[in-house]
Amino acid sequence: MSCEVEFSALAFVKLLLHASRFPHCAVNGVLLSECSEGDAAAPGGGCVCVSDCVPLFHSRLSLSAMTEVALQQIDIWCSRKQQRIVGYYHANASLTDNSPSTVALKIGDKIAEQFSNAVLVMVENSKVSLHYGTPPVILYEKKDSKWILKDKNLVMWRRWEETKRVADALSSAKAYDQLVDFDCHLDDIRQDWTNRDINAKIVELCSAANGNL
């Protein structure tokens, strides 16, 4: 039985900003959940509440050693914040290619080994603009060793209209230029891959719009 998945504004907006900052590159990242919520998503039911995401790469997607280092650092950071990795997102470099790449499937499989209700999110690049009406993403879940499309009725977006307004406002202000992924961090370790400044800005805008993270 499939489980429900709920996305917070923080997770969606950061995912979108990552894709927007590097529109001509493939980008990827991991999805996080609070441990109390993620642990409740036991096999066969429950709900996975995606509360945040961590942007990974935009130029080193195929370098498995770098991915391992990043995932290890994220795991350590998550353990301190009572969070865990529950999914993966990926945007291909091609504007029209929304299918999971070999890299996406490989990292998705790795996450699913640790969390059986893991989700794989593909960004629909052609719909990443200020004119999308519904979330420009496609969700997959793993069934019998294969990634299949997830039932849209099982995917919820917390306060979607408010979330979209926040995403639009930050995109219009080019806030994506401030977003840091692991590629940026590896080039300059002073750059904060946890994106505390952007997180605070998203929370502030959501609070002003009576959003609920």
Give a short synopsis of this structure.
This protein is α/β, with parallel strands linked by helices and 213 residues long. The chain contains 7 helices and 9 strands; from the N terminus they run βαβαββαβαββββααα. α1 (9-21) crosses α7.
Describe this structure in words.
With 213 residues, the chain is α/β, with parallel strands linked by helices. 37% of the residues lie in helices and 23% in strands. It contains seven helices and nine strands; from the N terminus they run E-H-E-H-E-E-H-E-H-E-E-E-E-H-H-H. The protein has helices at residues 9-21, 35-38, 64-80, 102-114, 160-172, 182-187, 196-208, and strands at 4-7, 27-34, 47-50, 52-55, 83-91, 119-123, 137-143, 146-149, 155-157. The strands form two sheets. It has a six-stranded mixed β-sheet with strand order 4-2-5-6-7-8, sandwiched between helices. Strand 7 and strand 8 (146-149) form a beta hairpin. Helix 1 (9-21) runs parallel beside helix 5 and helix 1 packs across helix 7. It is globular, with a radius of gyration of 16 Å. It starts with a strand and ends in a 5-residue tail after the last helix.
Topology at a glance:
Elements: E1 4-7, H1 9-21, E2 27-34, H2 35-38, E3 47-50, E4 52-55, H3 64-80, E5 83-91, H4 102-114, E6 119-123, E7 137-143, E8 146-149, E9 155-157, H5 160-172, H6 182-187, H7 196-208
Parallel strand pairs: 1-3, 1-9, 5-6
Antiparallel strand pairs: 2-4, 2-5, 6-7, 7-8
Helix pairs in contact: 1-5, 1-7
Distance between the termini: 27 Å
- N-to-C order of helices and strands: EHEHEEHEHEEEEHHH
> So what's the overall shape?
globular
What share of residues are in beta strands?
A: 15-25%
* Total strands: 9
Mean pLDDT: 90
Number of helices: 7
Relative helix content:
25-40%
Strand order of the largest sheet: 4-2-5-6-7-8
Radius of gyration: 16 Å
SS class: alpha/beta
Largest sheet: 6 strands, mixed
Low-confidence segments, given as residue ranges, are: 40-44
